[in-house]
Amino acid sequence: MKNACQYILIFSCLITFLFSSVWAASQFDSDDDMVFEADDSFDSDAMQFDSDDSFDSDDPIFEDNEFVSNDAALKAEKNTAPWYSNQLIDDSRFTFGYEFSHQLSIKPSYITHDIYLRQETQTLLRDNLYVKFDGRFNYYFDNDHRTKARQKSILTDTNLRELYLQFGFSKFNVTFGRQIVVWGKADTQIITDVVSPRDNSDFIFIKLEDSRLGQLMLSSDIYSDWGHFFVFISPNPLIDNEPDPGTAYDISIQGFDFFSSVNTMIPEEDLFLILDDKPSYADTEYGIQWKKNFGSIDLSLMAGYFFDNAGIYHCSGFDWEQLKIQLNKNYHPYEMIGLAASYATGACLLKVETAVKKRLSFQSIDVLNLDIGSVEKNIMDMGVGLEYNANGRYLVSGEISNRFVPGDTESLLFTDRHSTSVYTTFTKDFFHDTLTFEYMLYYHIQEENCFHQVRLSHDLTDNLKIISACAFFNINDKKSLLWFYRDADRLSCELRYYY
Amino acid sequence: MKHYLIIATILFYTTCFSFAQDAKDIMQKVIDRNDGTTEIARVRLSTCRVVKKGRKLVCADSPRIKILDMVRKDYGPKEKDHKTVSIIIEPAAEKGIGFLQYDYDQPGKDTDQWLYLSALGKVKRIVSGNDNEPKTGSFFGTEFTYEDMESIHLEDYSYKILGSETYQKRSCWVIESIPGKQRAKKSNYSRMMDWIDKKRFIALKSILFNRQGKKLKKIYNNNIEIIDSILVPRKIIVYNLESGRRTFLTYEKVAFNKPVSDDFLTQRTLIDGVFRESTLKQYQLHLK
User: Is A390 close to B129, i.e. CB distance below 8 A?
Assistant: First the structure.
């Protein structure tokens, strides 16, 4: 009886094994013959599984009445407008914004209070001809600091950020017009990102991506097996847009500390006559960039001849008619070679950026001779950064950058031998990526100045976004430029509607 | 007697292994199902929180909608490496954002990803996270995670046929996939159940269980059509049972195996407007 049981057990196992092997072989004997009858292959009754798992009876029924725009022809049939007007509207984005901010130290006054309309259009005019337009119309209310500075009830202005034509060919393109060019990897310090000037009229409260200003250029991208080359020439380079006189962030030339050991407000119009010598058509900027990707490494090299986007003052005499010291504001040329690289590994992105700037001018001051002038130096800027992505839970980034100015720096204004700053951000998304929290810290090591910003951005709908931010300054160094902004703590709010 | 028991035990385990092997073979067929060497598509992603209204689940609020133009090309001897470029068309707030991704079949090789933010005007390399823990970030704010969009490596899981049943009038195997030790560390799921169409080797439905073993998501592949000789579910529904949200991924238009230039799957597409738009316009003539 015992033996019989053993044989039955072995026999049953053998039969099952043979059955399954034959069945498996019959299923997958040929790639071309993947269709077979389920009933022949598998005895579903014999292989029932746990009732909890086997029959998922609670399949939901979804309402599915969403409009799907999958018929371009239908669209064209309904719309009788000319093709170019349809295309221009389809390829455009409009942003209507309302923003205000409040400086905490001057309650209850507004700093900014404005509305704007921005149009961004990128469209193909012909198979190889493309146009980009990015322009903005601003309307400032009477309590905006820019309106108040001009003593007007309202103020309007327009800002043409970009307008260019791009001609495409198989391995290169040629672009002509007003363009913004972004170089480098660093997020804060300007190391190699020196091509496009910036709008500083609202101090640091204009986001980096909005602060870049376009300038007239002829440029070309060349794509080859050797990498991506970008060359440009800018016949009339623009300069940074500084705060207008009398506005909240205008410090003019109050940094010239002849008369006191402590920086004091020296109203520009009382003592100085400024002659702004902006670069002209004779002052041409040009540069080249090479970029290539090597697996996890992105590498770029840059070189160029530039005009400094920030001006340097020179004492050029005394105006006896107005009894003022005459200052010329010049934008000095310099040469730069730079390198930027990033390396991605796992959750981390390592970034390195460095530039050598030759004959870069610095503001100098000769207290004994009461002279204001400039000194040229060959300097080195360097930055190292690390980004860490915690698998989508949050993002942390840190960046440390240093400017090294060799030689004597005693006579230089707001310039030390080393200027080192640390920049960190923490970003986290909530509510299915519709709410973004961002904390940013900037710390200058030598000056011990600190700046914090908390920013919340919430997508109320697909088209409506509200952004609020709070910025705090902790400025300790009386000799630093930021000393003038020690009370600039600010609360701001912006509503954007995209369509 | 001892010998018989040993033989019986060996035969028993061999039999079990044989069934496991069958499940694995089925999944191999599913993974190897021809998805085309290239794919050009306009994809719509619609996500909302759902509430029960009668027998139906309806959106409780306005759905968040994203429309993407997407181009994919496969590389490698088995065409298991993928390069994909995606450009956001809608919503207006995100219009022009581009995403380039290189996925590799080679185990342990990190995905390369670049993001082009039109507002920032530069291409930024991004990292998706540590490989030793689950990626929790969602794909463009939908109920898909990046893990849901990744290619499955057959060897990462053990498989078992749980049974057979008719689903959507199709005879299906119900196959359980359990991630192996290495995969389990970085997966959001502890277990998956797939309803595999026996004739077409395509998953019609999947249930994904979270790391605690609770049902987390249900995925439905609907409106399955043959386009350019490729079997494609034109509508994929993800229903997250935890969050009570659903995403419809709809292929508004799609084409397969059309010629796609290698140059298009590079950073050039993200930054070179004239190249991107003119090439995409040519590609989109194939869309159905």
Answer: yes
Structure tokens at A448: 């011990």
Pick the residue from chain A with its C-alpha nearest to B22: A24
Which chain A residue lies closest to B278 (C-alpha atoms)? Answer: A127
Among chain B residues, the shortest Cα distance to A69 is held by: B252
Residues of A in contact with B266 (CB under 8 A): 223
**pLDDT surpassing 90 at residue A318:** no
- Beta-carbon separation of A130 and B119 below 8 A: no
Is A430 an 8 Å CB contact of chain B? no
Angle at B104 between CA B101 and CA B110, to 5 degrees: 75
Q: Do A209 and B263 touch (CB under 8 A)?
A: no
Cβ burial, residue B219 (10 Å; 0-12/13-18/19+): buried
Q: From the list A20, A23, A167, which residue is nearest B274 (CB)?
A: A167
Say if CB A276 and CB A313 are below 8 A apart. Answer: no
Class of domain B36-286: mainly beta
Per-residue pLDDT of chain B (288 residues; tens, 9 = 90+): 555 555 555 545 444 444 555 899 999 999 888 889 999 999 999 999 999 888 888 999 889 999 999 999 999 888 889 999 999 999 999 999 999 999 888 877 888 889 998 888 889 998 877 777 887 778 888 998 888 877 788 888 999 999 999 998 899 999 999 999 888 888 899 999 999 999 999 999 999 999 999 999 999 999 999 999 999 999 999 999 999 999 999 999 999 999 999 999 999 999 999 999 999 999 999 887
- In this complex, which of B4, B137, B274 lies closest to A173 when CB atoms are compared? B274
Tokens 């390399």 belong to which residue?
A: B125
Which residue does chain A place closest to B162, by CA atoms?
A49
Q: Which domains does chain A have, with CATH numbers?
A: 108-168 (no CATH), 169-498 (2.40.160)
Cis before A237 (ω within 30): no
Backbone torsions φ then ψ of B179, nearest 5 degrees: -65, 140
Q: Identify whether the C-beta of residue A205 lies closer than 8 Å to the C-beta of residue A101.
A: yes
